[in-house]
Structure formats: structure tokens, C-alpha cells
Design a protein that fits this description.
- The protein is mainly alpha-helical.
- The chain has a domain of 93 residues.
- Helices cover 80% and strands 0% of the residues.
- Helix 2 packs antiparallel against helix 3 and helix 6 packs antiparallel against helix 7.
- 25% of the residues are buried.
């Protein structure tokens, strides 16, 4: 039961990222002329809230008893970065496209982790998950390198990829929740005893 509870908590937390991607991507695409400082505040505020949730979970779940847990470190780091982002909002606003490219790259790496998990579980869905991860790694790389001569085209490409990444990420997280839950349930099922082989007289 503990595994299922932790899986649900982790999934709900991970779903926050694609939901934010969808909302921010849609606003950047369709709300033309909106001040990018607003999104910089959203970015910083999201880091602070996410870091605070990580810290609360770290202590509530007694993760400090697990030597391998890094919830405290990631939580404090996210809060510090969020505060810096809010204070230096003009710098974040001017470099918003780069930050979004980094965010897409991070979620693409998360999909690579899902690919490894599916390989371990011998689930054939590792093929499309790997393909999706590679596509977004390439897209994030293009965003960070910026091969476009037209800045507006570069920005629009970034916003479209952010929106698509949000939709794909939402689907992947939900799929992984059910897949991991099913795999764990099968692994815990008792193995039926093997009937003894009768010796021929």
C-alpha cells in the first residue's frame, strides 16, 4: 500500500509540470503582447511552490530516514532559485526562451528515465517513449542553440514545443502511473506451488 501511495503522490507532483507547460505555452502562443515578466514571476513562483512541496513531503514521509533521498536538497535549491528568479525578474524575462528550452530538456531527460523503467519491466512501450524523448531533446537543443535568423520564429517554435511537451508529458505520466502500479502488483502476486513430479515405478 505504501508503494501505491508514494506512486500516486509522485505522479500528482510530476503532473504539475506538464499542466504548467500547457497553460504557459497556450498563453504565450495565443495571448499576444502579454508581458514576459508575468511568466518570469510564474516561473519563480512555481519553483518556490514546488520546492516547498518537496520539503513538506520530505519531512511528512520521513524521507530523511532514506539515505538515497534528495528531497531536501532539491526542495531548498528550487526555493533559492525561485527567489532569485523573482528578484531578477527582468533578467529571466529577457532570457525566457532559453529557460523554457532548459525546462523542455529536463523533461526530455525524465522521459529517458521512463524509457529505462519500461525496458526493465520488458514493456514494449519503451520504443515510442524513447522516440518522444529523442524528439524533445533535439527540439530543446535547437531552442538553446537558436539556429533561426528570425527571433520571433525562434520564440514561436519554443512556445509550440512547450505546449506539445505539456500534452505529451501529461499522457506519459498517467501511462507510467498505471504501468508501474500494474507491474508492482504482478510482482507481489504469490507464485503458485509447483506440483511434485510422480516417479515412475
Amino acid at each position: 500500500m505504501k508503494f501505491k501511495d508514494n506512486l500516486l503522490k509522485n505522479t500528482m507532483f510530476m503532473i504539475c509540470f506538464p499542466v504548467v507547460f500547457i497553460v504557459v505555452g497556450a498563453l504565450l502562443l495565443f495571448a499576444e503582447g502579454m508581458n514576459t515578466q508575468v511568466f518570469a514571476y510564474i516561473f519563480g513562483g512555481g519553483l518556490i511552490i514546488g520546492g516547498a512541496i518537496n520539503l513538506i513531503r520530505y519531512f511528512a514521509d520521513k524521507a530523511y530516514l532514506d539515505y538515497m533521498s534528495n528531497g531536501f536538497t532539491s526542495g531548498v535549491l528550487a526555493i533559492i532559485l525561485g527567489i532569485i528568479a523573482v528578484i531578477k525578474v527582468n533578467i529571466i524575462a529577457d532570457s525566457l526562451t532559453v529557460f523554457l528550452g532548459v525546462a523542455i530538456m529536463l523533461t526530455a531527460i525524465m522521459k529517458l528515465q521512463n524509457f529505462i523503467q519500461l525496458i526493465t519491466m520488458k514493456n514494449r512501450m519503451w520504443i515510442p517513449i524513447l522516440a518522444v524523448a529523442v524528439v524533445f531533446i533535439v527540439a530543446a537543443s535547437l531552442i538553446l542553440i537558436n539556429p533561426f535568423e528570425d527571433i520571433e520564429r525562434w520564440k514561436k517554435f519554443t512556445y509550440i514545443m512547450l505546449f506539445i511537451d505539456g500534452i505529451v508529458g501529461l499522457a506519459v505520466n498517467i501511462f507510467m502511473y498505471f504501468t508501474l502500479g500494474s507491474y508492482k502488483k504482478k510482482a507481489e502476486e504469490p507464485v503458485p506451488p509447483v506440483p511434485p513430479v510422480e516417479k515412475k515405478s
